[in-house]
Amino acid sequence: MYICVCKGVTDRDIHSAVQQGAERMRDLRICLGVAGECGACACHVKMALDKSRQLTPSPEPAGGS
């Protein structure tokens, strides 16, 4: 589903960005350009970000035993 019509960003695009390391709205703004034009999508982007973060496992800390 399209989340940001201005930039043509879908929920799948947001999920992929989270899998590649995006953790905050700022990260999505930088890599996808969301919420930068009219800003109407900001609340929907945040919801998609939160949902994707819940579905994406956190990386293991380096050097753990």
UniProtKB/TrEMBL annotation:
UniProt keyword Iron-sulfur, yes or no: yes
GO MF assignments: 2 iron, 2 sulfur cluster binding; metal ion binding
Name of one Pfam family that matches: Fer2_BFD
Organism domain of life: Bacteria
BFD-like [2Fe-2S]-binding domain sequence ranges: 2-47
Record's keyword terms, sorted: 2Fe-2S, Electron transport, Iron, Iron-sulfur, Metal-binding, Transport
Family (UniProt): Belongs to the Bfd family.
Protein name (Swiss-Prot/TrEMBL): Bacterioferritin-associated ferredoxin
Organism: Nitrosomonas halophila
